[in-house]
Amino acid sequence: MHIVSNDGFSIIIPTYHEANNLPNLVKRIAQVNFGSRDFEVILADDNSQDNTLAVAKQLSIQYPWLKLLTRHGKKRDLSQSILDGYDAAQYPILITMDADLSHPPEKIPDMLTILNDPTVDAVIGSRYIPGGSTDPSWPITRVFTSKLAAWIAQFFLRIPVKDPLSGFLAIRKQTLLAGDTLKPIGWKIGLEIIIKCHCHHIREIPIYFSQRQQGTSKLNVKISFDYLRHITYLLWHKITTHTAEG
Fold first, then answer.
1. Nearest Cα to 187, choosing from 113, 79, 90?
2. H or E segment at 110?
3. What would the mean pLDDT of 72-96 be, rounded to a whole number?
4. pTM exceeds 0.85 for this model
5. Which residues contact 118 (CB under 8 A, 6 or more apart)?
6. What is the rounded CA–CA span in Å between residue 197 and residue 188?
């Protein structure tokens, strides 16, 4: 990965069949005041077969900071899409967010300000701290499942944050490069980064987590099973790493 020596940032957004959401998402990003900072938005697409690619190319004419990275001939993998986006990123700060408008891009300036503190390893957009919330249309079963999954990560991995499963994350590329090799299982790349990149000082900012605007959720039984496998894998990594260091 090539690091540009300025305060610019790269927003990495994994996409798959998000043609209907992209115009609104890109417009909202364009309306955010980032001051004089350089930035880029990388759509790391899993070779969508809807109109996502055409929409992205059309939008990039109006917004030259919008870039499309298409993963041809590769197995669909949200986490790997993000890692490929990281590899392609040219700026020293990396922001990860979803394409379905559940994460508010208006919060990115706050994340960048907090990350200016050199003692902060990562910044997370959190649903579960004071001021944070989720869409009231969320089914109670989904709220329960989300909070249970967060508790599992907190308890077994000893992660000192309220929303460890958030996909809205800011981190320095330098922190990423200094960490262990990332090999995530499933879609919770944030957990992988927190553990493998040794993020001890993590700040959370409150966000309103919106319901998906268009399309359907990717959540299914396999993803839930992969999450439990990922927790087990990361717990073993923590144990073996601590033993080796000790």
1. 79
2. helix 108-115
3. 90
4. yes
5. none
6. 14
